[in-house]
Amino acid sequence: MLLLLTRSLCGLATSSIRIRHHHLPAIPPKPTHTSRGPGRISMSSSATAASFPPPQLKAAAEEVASLLKARGETVCVAETAAGGLISSALLATPGASKIYRGGLTLYTLESRIAFAGWQQRDIDEYDGPTPTLVEGLARNVRDKLKATYCIGESGTAGPTASGDKPNRQPSYVALAVASQDDSASKDLNTGLGNDRQANMVAFAVEALHLARDFIEGKSNEGKL
């Protein structure tokens, strides 16, 4: 902005002085530094540990991871309604890279065509999750990822039903574990009604329990 000042000096002719005001750019605030270094978000490790995985899920994943490490074996995951919780719980265990080969969240029927060997007739004939269906998903994904075992899960988490049959009601889940030469499967109702988040966690816990029992059965084969 220009400001024009006029003044008389000792009876001399009036002179004009132009003063230019410069607007300096604002100085940005200095970055704050935490004990973890500049630009990093400080988060309490205890708060992080308390939030994920939930205690039951953490314990189930650690049991499976411990068995796999002891046997020098690996696992992969084909899950649907659990939404990745099985994989993330396994990956939260220390040394997960030694036992985890990968996982797929096959939530849509179309994703099963793309990644799990389904064909259009499988979608046309689909009538909800079943142990046989989930066992097929587990076998297909295990073959692709070359893991010792594949954990399979598909259920109805809620809050609404996806059909009239029992296997399409909230809290129903079908589970499977497949190895190269063997498999096991089951289905159950968590009893948690239409609580979507609670069902998702329960589906993951039950899937890991089935995997634990299956691997322990392998460990006990041939023992007197």
UniProtKB/TrEMBL annotation:
At the top level, the lineage of the source is Eukaryota
Segments forming domain CinA C-terminal: 59-213
InterPro entries under this entry?
CinA-like_C, CinA_C
What Pfam families does the record point to? CinA
**Residues annotated as region Disordered?**
24-48
Gene3D superfamilies this protein is in?
CinA-like (3.90.950.20)
Q: What is this protein called?
A: CinA C-terminal domain-containing protein
Organism, by scientific name, is Phialophora macrospora
